[in-house]
Amino acid sequence: MSGLSVMIPTFRRPESFLRAARSVLRQVGLANPPQLVAIDNSPEGSAAQAFAALRQETTAPLVLLHESRPGVANARNAGMSATHDALVAFLDDDEEAPPHWLAALLAVQRQTGADAVFGPVQARLANDAIPHKAYVERLYTRAGPQQSGPSHRYYGIGNSLLRRETMLAASAPFSLEANEKGGEDDMLFSWAHAAGRRFAWAAEAVVIEHIPPERASLAYAMKRAFAFGQGPCEAAFAAEPKQWGAIAAHMALGGAQATLCGAVAGAAFLAGSPARYWFLDKAVRGAGKLVWWRPRLFYGEALARESALASPPASMNGGSPLSQANAGRLPSKTMTDRLMHRSGAADRGRS
Question: Is residue 249 located within the same domain as residue 323?
Answer without folding.
Answer: yes
